[in-house]
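agent> fetching stored inputs for the NAI docking request
agent> found them:
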Amino acid sequence: MPTIAITGSASGIGAATAEELRRSGAGIIGVDLRDAEVIADLSTPEGREQAVDGVLSRCDGVLDGFVACAGLGPQVDDPGLIAGVNYFGTVALLDGLFPALRRGKDPAAVVVSSVASTHVTWDENPLAPLVQSGDEPEVDAVDAAVAAAGEYRGQYAYAASKNALTVAVRRRVPEWGAAGVRVNTVAPGSVETPLLRAGEADPRYGQAIREFVAPIPRHGRPEEVASLIAYLMSPRAGFVHGAQFVIDGGVDALLRPSRF
Ligand code: NAI
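agent> prediction call returned; pasting tokens
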């Protein structure tokens, strides 16, 4: 029975993924703020350490899979917190669990990024200069980096954190491939979860989310993202490594048909 750690396992895409992988026979170590095997706050260095230690002690240092779903949405009014969970929290777990994944059977990881990762380029990503050193910057530095977006700074921090996250995964692809650990990202569009509902309820973003119609004219379901993640985690995806899979009902192709 493969052992798989999943962050954000208490809700939305993470909960659906935990359920799908459990059904296929995996043992799940969920990591979340609540309702999980490992309770940890990924916004702080101490919480991330607690999460890595908690997973490692439950899997005896051997992990077959890791799925990073924990994240905060653009409506959260603290750019430092968005970057802290979406980028630094995820990267700390990827790196902290890598040695255990190397010892696993057919090991694989999937990181949930977002279509928003393509809304800024790395060259123009305001977080790029701040994440290069690997050390987490002061919250004030993150605030200052996205301040130009005014009341939409949460959206800017969100897109920047997801762009940086996809870049971080892609940069690990040579080392992870050589170690036999596959890693890919998925980039969902609007998926029906508490995170999306909080965005819909937000006065800044709600109307745009509600009125936008995708080529497949509905929001995605968490189970649909979970089924893509389950495929990427399985040996059937044995040659899939370093890729980003958009799952957005056709929005990316609608908005930029000639850029891919
Ligand atoms: P959700 O809000 O249903 O689930 C997120 C989970 O992350 C929650 O269980 C929450 O407790 C956990 N979490 C948040 N902060 C944490 C922290 N500091 N420490 C530990 N756990 C924490 O949201 P959803 O939609 O399932 O999001 C999952 C991932 O999918 C996120 O990374 C999100 O950015 C991404 N995503 C979601 C989209 C959507 O439309 N729902 C679209 C694109 C990407």
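agent> quick read of the result: The pocket of NAI is lined by residues 8, 10-14, 32-33, 41-43, 69-72, 85, 112, 114, 188, 190-191, 193-196 (CB under 6 Å).
agent> awaiting further instructions
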